[in-house]
Predict the 3D structure of the following.
Amino acid sequence: MRSLLRLLGSTRQLTPYYVGILLSSVLITATALSVPFIIKAATDRIVEVVGSGGHTGADVRAILWLAVALLAVDLTNTLVSNVGGYWGDLAAARMRRILSSRYYEKLLALPQRYFDTELTGTIINRLSRNIAETTQFLNAFANNFLPTLMTTLAVLVISAWYSWPLALLLITIFPLYLWLTALTSTRWQKLEGEKNTQYDIAGGRFAEVIGQIKVVKSFGREESELRAFDERYARTIRTTHHQSRYWHGMDALRRGALNVVFFGVYAIIFVQTVRHVFSVGEMVLLIQLVNLARQPVTMMSYLIDSAQRAIAGSKDYWTVMEEVPEQVALEAPRSGGAADGSPMAAPSGSAPVPPDVPAVEFVDARFGYVEDPDVLQDVDLTIRQGERVALVGESGGGKTTLISLLLGLYRLREGELRVLGQDTQRMSLAELRSRFGVVFQDASLFSGTVRENIAYGHPEATDAEVEAVARRANAHAFIQRFEDGYETVVGERGLKLSGGQKQRIAIARALLKDAPILVLDEATSALDTRSERAVQAGLAELMEGRTSIIIAHRLSTISTVDRIITLKDGRIDEVGTPAELSRTGGLYAQLLELQESGEAAHRKRL
Ligand code: ADP
Ligand code: MG
């Protein structure tokens, strides 16, 4: 409940809507309550006229006027309900927008670690459920529950005027209802949580399967994926079975108790009328009032159900909202909107760095994804500005991890990392990341056009700029051959392109960012040798004088770098120029020999 109130409190900007909804609820209540009084007046008049044995024209007119009053009241009620409903819908839509954006903002600011452990589908599933259930409840509350609740309260007051035992009896309903509900709530919430966990797991797998449908198809796993999915839902049925049986059992109890209370109420009204304590008109009035009070009470079952879902949803919402965002440096300059160090923070203007300051400096760095083992240890590495360095090592040696650390995707466990002379612990992440142009190992693109993808880091780039970087990445030629050229839509994650095409667009994207340090993580691994050479030639010119860190699969393509660093089991193994290292007979020389003999054998076979 607290989480739900907190959610309302956090949407203060919707106050005008809340006030509007409140006002319309008051009007709806007032009009709904007028009806019994008009009917009472009519009944009194009719009883009188019928009792007198004759009637006058004035009697008929008076009765008709009362009917007109009923019409007026009903029309007002209709109008106000709909206006209120409209406000309710708008408030819910706005709330949905506010909560969704906040949730998204929060997610975007969460550390890489969060996304390493949570499945995409799960995250999305949770977002839509939490927010849908909260806003749906608030909408139902505004449209249905609030007016009826007010009506019930008014009925209590009015019935107290006529008969206090009656009012007292009616009043017992509320504590009884709430008590019975509170009794069931904890267990219900627990089962709801279990169910949602299953939905989230199923949703996570679902998104993964659809995203990698090719693998599923080629391994013929459609049926087993479907079965696993269905099994998750089967579990939710078991939980729903318990949850619903429990809920409806308690609801029957609640409403049964209520039926007994209403029996007492009706009995009092009937008996008191027979005893001439109430007139027939008053009896008609009271019966209508009591019926008005019945309505919200039955609606309450539905509402409590929906409220409990909303409470579960809002709790989940706050759990995500309270996740710790990516750590921002304590003394980081907080430029506009960077309150939590979100990646959207604008980089602060950077002063030119003296050329003798190293571009990258790892000092005694140690890192592991989990408590144990360390993936990188004793990393001491200095890369000068303008230097071109290649990272070499066997797969799993920690090359990509080193890049992730540079980008501040993870924090060092020990040691220091300085980028262009600044301690990364004292920089905002946005600032840090503005120093790098990166091509990741899995050159992921977005589902837009080629142009949009290249301009991703620099959307205001001109067509000429986009084309220039595409040429350098050796991508212009193949883009030109597409029917729509730069406007070609690449499909989800770029799936309509070949691996090599994707990589070249990713290289162009990194080049356009024009950051001081260029990082290529196996950026040309999916290219054939000829294209790779062409890309490298384009890059060589670009890397001239620019700090570049390259991880290359084919060692022949990095023979021109200034220095090679080999990583072995998470430690720096060798450092030297390509020529030096090929002579020492270490890891680099071994890998080189393996590749060269492989290539030679390949050539021989041809
Ligand atoms: P390389 O790029 O040199 O092939 P990586 O840096 O990708 O190697 O991986 C180094 C080690 O860290 C591997 O043993 C890998 O299993 C592990 N690793 C990589 N990424 C993660 C991650 N997100 N969570 C946990 N372990 C990881
Ligand atoms: Mg790697």
Observations:
- Residues 353-435+517-606 form a domain with the Rossmann fold fold (CATH 3.40.50.300).
- The pocket of magnesium ion (ligand 2) is lined by residues 399-400, 441, 521 (CB under 6 Å).
